[in-house]
Every structure is written in C-alpha cells, then in structure tokens.
Amino acid sequence: MADQSRKEGYDYMSDDTLTAPAPSQEMGTFDESGEYTPRQIVADDLGGTSLEDAIAGTIVEFEDGDIVSGTVVKVDKDEVLLDIGFKSEGVIPARELSIRHDVDPGEVVTLGEKIEALVLQKEDKEGRLILSKKRAQYERAWGTIEAVKERDGVVSGPVIEVVKGGLIVDIGLRGFLPASLVELRRVRDLAPYIGRTLDAKIIELDKNRNNVVLSRRAWLEETQREQRDEFLTNLKPGEVRRGVVSSVVNFGAFVDLGGMDGLIHVSELSWKHIDHPSQVVQVGDEVEVRVLDVDLDRERISLSLKATQSDPWQDFANAHRVDELVYGRVTKLVPFGAFVQVGDGIEGLVHISEMANHHVDLPEQVVSPSEELWVKIIEIDLQRRRISLSIKQAAEGGEVAAEYREAFGEHAYDEHGNYIGAAGFADFEPESEAQAAWAEYLEGGGTVGADGEAAEGHADAEGPAAAEGPAAAEGQAAADHGTEPEAPAAPAGETAAEAEAE
User: Fold this and answer.
1) Nearest CA to 380 among 329, 343, 405?
2) Rounded to whole angstroms, how far apart are CA atoms 66 and 478?
3) Residues 402, 110: Cα–Cα separation, whole Å
4) Is the pTM of the predicted complex or chain greater than 0.85?
C-alpha cells in the first residue's frame, strides 16, 4: 500500500496515514479527499514580456561580414546547411567550405558539428542566408598569423597543392612556399611534398593583397645554425670526406657532406678538360672529395674531386723520360705544329720544326688529324704541364717507353735479350694497339738492341748505304733509279735556300 501510494504521488507517514503532497507550481494539486486539480494554464505566463518581444529574443541578430556559429544540419554534395538560430538555416556553398579547391563537403564537415561561418549575404534574391566557413577561418587565421609574424614565430600546416613556382600550405589560409625556399637547396620535384606537414617562417604578409609568403629554408637554417657552426668549425682544409652529389649545375657540382653542401668547381672535377660537370658526376653519386677551403663567414665549403685522384701528368712524368719513344694520336693541327695524345688526357706538342728533316710550311704536309704515329719525348715540363715531342727524331730511332715493351711481351726478345721483332714470331697476332704499333715500327726497319737503343742501320747490311746511315741510303737509292739525290734537309730553323747555300 505504501509503495503504491508513493508511486501515485502520496507521502507515506510513520503512522501509516496518507497525506497529500505539498502544492507545486510544476504540477497539479490534491485536496483532502484525494481529488486532483491540474495546474491551470494562464493566457500570459511571460511576466511583463510581450509575445512579440519573446519571439524576437530567440532570433540571432547579425549583419553582413559578421562571424556567427551554428550546427551543421545537412551536408549535400554542393552545399551545407547551418543552423545559427535564425528564422531559416544558412547556406554554405561548397566553394566556401575550404581553402582547398574541389573538395567533398563530407570531408570538411559532419552532421551535428559546431562551426563558425562568416555572413556573406543576409538575404540573397531567393531569400537565403549565404555563409562562408573558409572566410571565417581566414579572418581568424589572419589575427593569429600577424601575431606569429610579429614575434618571428613559426607556422605549421599540410601541403595541399603544387602550383607554378612552389607549394600551397594550409595555415588557416593559403600560404605560398616558393620552390627555392622549401629546402636548403632548390628542389626540382615538389610532388612528394603533397600531404606533408611543414614548418615555416613568415617572410611576407600583406592582407590587402591576400598574400602570405613562407620560407621553410629560413626555419631549417635557424634550427640547424648551431649544428652548421659546429660542422664548419670541425671541417679542416686538406681533409678527405665522403659525400653524395646533391645537384649538378653548369659551374660544378654540390656534394652533401652529411651536414652541409660543398661545391666542387668544374675545374676541380677532373684532370681532363670537360665541357659539363655531368660528364663526370650525376646526382646521387657517392664521391670522395678533398676539402680545399672553409669560409666560416660566408658558410661556404670548396671541394675537389680530382685532388683525391692520381695526377695523370705526374704519373706520366714518373713513367717516362726524355728521349723515349711513345706512340700517340694526332688530335689537332695548329699553324705552329700538331698536338699528339700520348696518354689518358695527356697531350704533347710537336713543333713544326720537329716534324721532318726537311722544311715544312704547314703541319698538314706531314700529318693529319687522328693519324697514329711514334714520337720522341724531347722535354717534360711538369710545372707548366707541357710535353715537347718530335716526329723527326723518332724516325732516327731510340729507346721505346717501358709500357710498350711490356705490352709486346717477353717473347719478343731472344735468349741474349736482343729484340728480334716480328721476324722472330711470324704467326704472332698483336693483342693491343701498342703491340701492333710496335710491330709496325719494327717492320719499317727500326731495330732495338739489348740496351733498348735503336740502331740506324743493320750491322750485316750490304753496301755503303747501310754503313753510312739514312742520308747515304737515300743517295744510293736515287742512284739505283738513275736520278739525282735531293739536297740535304735543312736543319731546324733554316730555309731550304740557306741549306743549299751551305
């Protein structure tokens, strides 16, 4: 009974007497007999406020350009409806949802979410309230960004777009990050940065032009300054470091040393002449370089690739000496002679006076480009990197450079150490250009004794020509054919007329 009474709204006293509950303004009342009297509804329960004022008080007041807040009540593919407490929901067109272009509204907002929007138009021609979420976000962001710029702070946001010349970063508004300021060095491919969150410094801010320019490089330089200072302090000229080629430009190549980039000038890439650095290195190549100079004030590092490699000129000078015969190829003709390549990247000059025993007016009278021939070394100037060669002295014979003897093989010598030439092995097939050149030289009449010196005539040759040398041989040959021998060749520096006069 007591339980039932409590359920019906009665009080259960200790003496089991039922009493009516105290009167309440929120519900009706019961009299002594238990009759219920419902609460009376009066016509005016607003106190002193009129119905019109009460209705007006529930409607939000705002003007164009104001920022309002509300709840998302509908999401369509082209618009979002926002309840801000106005007489009708506000409409946010899809293009006004985000600073990103062509986004799905469902990816920006969700049903029931509370957001802010800026009033673009209180009532358009169709009577709709037009709002913009991105404009509200833009206004809020400007205040924050101006404060960050004033204190030289850092902003952070995801990369949302690649545009001509750089990236667009979402920092509450569209911040432009130039390609040259993305990293410490210029980046060619910006696509991999899409979706990445980047930190950057604000270097330019203009609200009137809606212009915000960012620099990630400035942030990287600031955060890495201490590390760079330590790196530069510990880097000493003369050290050899390993690094990776980070970029190749017309004037050289940049190498990442693991803390900073250093430059290998094009002149320090190779001992040979090159037209472009890409002939020697490519981006991504791992190289060993020598530190030439460290400029602490300008934070620049000069490197050399060729300094870690053997100097071909020094190698040539160590392996050869004056009066040796070497085999080469004519690379260029000039008015005063011909250049002959006698080693990898090594060229020597045959002066026009050293081309023949007779007077030569033009180098092409004796040699032609790409022709291969034997020359004699008559001078090696390592300091000036110049080698003087002679064709006419090579014709007189001499000791052949060691690499050619080694290339031709020990079987080219008899049991006494005398060079026996191609006649000693008629079936021999040259295995290299040097061997072929050596054989050609010998077949042309050159002989080399055990000491390596070439003889001017064969000891067993018959007749005065062989005994008296090339000039006598030339005269004998002319006599055999019934002709007069030619006048002796003019010494170097003399004209033919001068020689005949002598």
Assistant:
1) 343
2) 116
3) 86
4) no
